[in-house]
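Troubleshooting entry. The earlier prediction with NAP gave an output that would not parse, so I re-checked the input for stray whitespace and re-submitted. Clean input:
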Amino acid sequence: MKTALVTGANKSIGFEAARQLLQQGFYVYLGSRSLVNGLKAVEQLNSEGLDKVEAIQIDVTDDESVKAARVGIGKKTGVLDVLINNAGISGEIPQSALDSKIDNFRNVYETNVYGVVRVTQAFIDLLQKSPEPRIVNVSSSVGSLSLQSDPTWPFYNYAKFAVYSSSKSALNMYTVTLAYELRDTSFKVNAIDPGYTKTDFNRHQGTGTVEDAAARVVKYALVGNDGPTGKYFSEETNPETGEIPW
Ligand code: NAP
């Protein structure tokens, strides 16, 4: 049975991604920074008949928590097939490039960028034991430098989020460099925009469903050996091929 770790999986897109992986027959380590919330999420999945799942306390900003999660999962499995780096925060709003406080940048980068680096580095040895390892970094189309500087992009004139957007741009570059380093292996490493989705993240202002958002993410956890790596996908932005410019 294939195994997966999803960070920030106690609710919203991460929770739904965990559910869809379970439906695909995976054993899922459901990452949650609050163990209580993780256990509640597992209870919900169990009540739906999905029982190959367990809660793992993991705060992606905390070295000790990530190390403990690695040790805990390592006692249960010698192989991790899928890592979904989903945990993310938006930071304080508004986010003017001129006025945003350094602490706002620091907090958001700590989760959205360093958190992904920390978790990826902690679990890479378990992923390397998989014959078909997959890393999905949950990004956003607002992290695209090309789109953000294209006046014909429909969201060009929307408020720009200097802190959040730049954190996703940094995550994108980490994805590119990680995929490059792993290019001669069976790893597939991609950055995925789940689309503007109705969750706590945007006080439920998003227009898409968590089911569609999670399906867009899980698709790249299931990608075959002939699938893409080092790419950036947003089905919302490009319904045809999904691929968008960095
Ligand atoms: P959400 O409803 O706010 O859920 C975020 C999840 O991340 C929660 O489980 C949260 O845990 C967890 N998290 C936050 N900080 C964490 C930390 N330090 N350690 C571990 N977990 C942490 O957000 P969402 O809409 O599902 O977003 C999920 C991902 O999609 C994010 O990376 C976001 O940037 C991206 N995204 C979302 C949208 C959208 O429209 N919703 C669009 C594009 C991209 P708690 O419950 O403990 O807070």
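This one parsed fine. The pocket of NAP is lined by residues 7-8, 10-14, 33-34, 37, 59-61, 86-89, 111, 115, 138, 140, 193-194, 196-197, 199-202, 206 (CB under 6 Å).
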